[in-house]
Amino acid sequence: MSNFWNEIEGPILALAPMEDVTDTSFRELVAQLSEPGCLHLFFTEFTAVDGMNHPVGKKRVSERLIVSDSERAILKEKGIRLIAQIWGNKPEVFYKVTREITEEYQFDGIDINMGCPVKNVVKQGSCSALIGTPELAQEIIYATKEATHLPVSVKTRTGLKAHETERWITQLLETKPAAITLHGRVQKQQSDGEANWNEIAKAVAIRNQQGLTIPILGNGDVLSYAQSMDYSQQYGVDGIMIGRGIFHNPWFFNSLQLERTKDEKMEQLVRHTQLFEKNWGGVKNFNILKRFYKIYANGFEGASQLRAKLMGANSFDDVYQLVNAQNMVLS
């Protein structure tokens, strides 16, 4: 089995899977803005294996696995791998859906979500709830690995109500996943408080003590490219996964961090809107786009007024007209 995880010259940099964020449109835009060699991995949005296994629900759930032709071209050009992230709590369904994804799609790997802290998901016994049911978690990993020739990785947290890093990481390592991404918060924290990078470093030490070469990526509160380089060295991780940091700067994956002009930001605002319209017009709710506009409409005179107007937009054309009215650059 080919395992690209061990072929990447580190530190490995990845954009985290995020619901209603890391669709094919946003991934393409971030890839286009990234410097070659500074971004290695993308993940799809969270994809429910139960939904993929449902005769009616599959059509909508499978939208999370769509990759546009233009995105695929830029990924190939930049050498960025794309991984399908899946979640659920039934090993047999993981096996069935993983086989289907492997045979019908063109992904480079499979990642199992054992870290999402959302309460209604946890109540189902899925995602970070699996930290508390390690035998089931291991069954899921083994079933997924058995179903595919692709490398199978895991994204998780350090515990449920308290850090259980030593116990949990030891149990994960027993299954020999292709890689582990560890978020330095427990489930109870959700996104509150600070990520504990000492716990992430503890996971690396456990891996090293066992003489394993399984890559471990750290995740949590990394807001700049320079910080990702510093944390990789300071905490001994093999790479960094970026989540909310991308909302501070869509040009995150560049070694030279430049102050972007208003025209550059408006160009990407329009380009993102155009990509979303091309990929999802008539399919997804236009309002999903509004969470992104604060990324671009900031840091220049009149930005707050423009943001307010964008929040009131009701269509793609409204957005284009607002930008045109400001005499800004269109892509």
From TrEMBL:
Recorded catalytic activity of this chain's protein: a 5,6-dihydrouridine in tRNA + NAD(+) = a uridine in tRNA + NADH + H(+); a 5,6-dihydrouridine in tRNA + NADP(+) = a uridine in tRNA + NADPH + H(+)
Binding site for FMN: 85, 155, 183, 243-244
Residue positions of the active site: 116
Domain DUS-like FMN-binding: 15-318
The keyword Chloroplast belongs to this UniProt entry's keyword annotation: no
Keywords: Flavoprotein, FMN, NADP, Nucleotide-binding, Oxidoreductase, RNA-binding, tRNA processing, tRNA-binding
Keyword Transmembrane helix: no
GO molecular function per UniProt: flavin adenine dinucleotide binding; tRNA binding; tRNA dihydrouridine synthase activity
Pfam families according to UniProt: Dus
Superkingdom classification of source: Bacteria
Signal peptide boundaries: none
EC number of this enzyme: 1.3.1.-
Described purpose of this protein according to its UniProt entry: Catalyzes the synthesis of 5,6-dihydrouridine (D), a modified base found in the D-loop of most tRNAs, via the reduction of the C5-C6 double bond in target uridines.
Family designation: Belongs to the dus family.
Protein name: tRNA-dihydrouridine synthase
Originating organism: Sunxiuqinia elliptica
